[in-house]
From TrEMBL:
<dbReference type="InterPro" id="IPR029068">
    <property type="entry name" value="Glyas_Bleomycin-R_OHBP_Dase"/>
</dbReference>
<protein>
    <submittedName>
        <fullName>Glyoxalase</fullName>
    </submittedName>
</protein>
<dbReference type="InterPro" id="IPR041581">
    <property type="entry name" value="Glyoxalase_6"/>
</dbReference>
<dbReference type="Pfam" id="PF18029">
    <property type="entry name" value="Glyoxalase_6"/>
</dbReference>
<dbReference type="InterPro" id="IPR037523">
    <property type="entry name" value="VOC_core"/>
</dbReference>
<feature type="domain" description="VOC">
    <location>
        <begin position="4"/>
        <end position="114"/>
    </location>
</feature>
């Protein structure tokens, strides 16, 4: 038996709005859209993707799952994402090499700094 990882599911009050925000932030394409679901992928035939599914109840606590991203330039990417509507958030991380941001619906994600071996490879 084999499993194919298709999507990470993100519950959202506004699946299309949040999904389009992430599509723009990541430069991904929309592969499905309906009243209750909105899916994006790096390319039409490339997985895994993110699928935003309507959930009308409010978020109750810190996310138990979040995404980490490693840009070429952490400072520039954080500035770009904040200008795009992300917010810096403090989830108790203290002083770290990564920056915690939240999307427009409050889902946390991290923008990491490149590791030394990644930067020199």
């Amino acid at each position: 038996m084999t499993l194919e990882w298709r999507h990470v599911i993100v519950h959202a009050a506004d699946p299309a709005g949040l999904g389009q925000w992430w599509a723009d932030a990541l430069g991904w394409v929309v592969v499905h859209s309906s009243a209750d679901e909105f899916a994006i992928c790096p390319a039409p035939d490339r997985l895994p993707g993110l699928e935003f599914v309507r959930l009308d109840e409010p978020r109750k606590a810190k996310s138990r799952l979040h995404l980490d991203f490693v840009p070429d330039d952490q400072e520039a990417e954080v500035a770009r994402l904040v200008a795009h509507g992300a917010q810096r958030v403090d989830i108790g991380q203290g002083e770290q090499s990564w920056v915690v941001l939240a999307d427009p619906e409050g889902n946390e994600f991290c923008v990491l700094a490149r590791r030394r071996q990644e930067a020199t490879a």
